[in-house]
Amino acid sequence: MRVIKPTDFQGEKAWDALDIEQIQNATVRLHWADQPYIWHVNDGPEVFVLLDGKVEMHIGDAGLESVLQLSPGEIFHAETGDRHKAVPLVPSRILVIESEGSI
Q1: Residues facing residue 18 across a β-bridge
Q2: CA 81, 60, 23: angle at the middle one, nearest 5?
Q3: For 57-76, how does the pLDDT look when each residue is reduced to its tens digit (9 = 90+)?
Q4: Prediction pTM value
């Protein structure tokens, strides 16, 4: 057993991750980020839980882009095929649960 305090984790570079667990074909990872991630589409669902910080989630659909403001405690759920990009506004810690090997 272990207790993980997200605010104690800081990566050496943006989107570094602390692997917490692998459950069948899914990973549970704590990410630290201070830079935007890339536009991407997951090949499975993704659960993105903002633990600390502030993140804009950019969503692209049919050539249109919208932005959601996420605050600590909020959850973003992307379904298979949803195009999105996370943009931290301050150094942030995010719990991500997704298919193993997702980008």
Answers
A1: 30
A2: 35
A3: 999 977 889 999 999 999 99
A4: 0.85
89: its two tokens: 């506004």
3-class DSSP state for residue 38?
A: coil
* 3 state SS of 34: coil
Q: What is the largest CA-CA distance in the chain?
A: 46
Per residue in 74-94, pLDDT (tens digit) is 999 999 999 999 999 999 999
User: How is residue 101 written in tokens?
Assistant: 């090997």
Give the percent of the chain with pLDDT over 70. 99
Structure tokens at 49: 């839980």
- How many angstroms separate the CA atoms of 94 and 75, rounded? 10
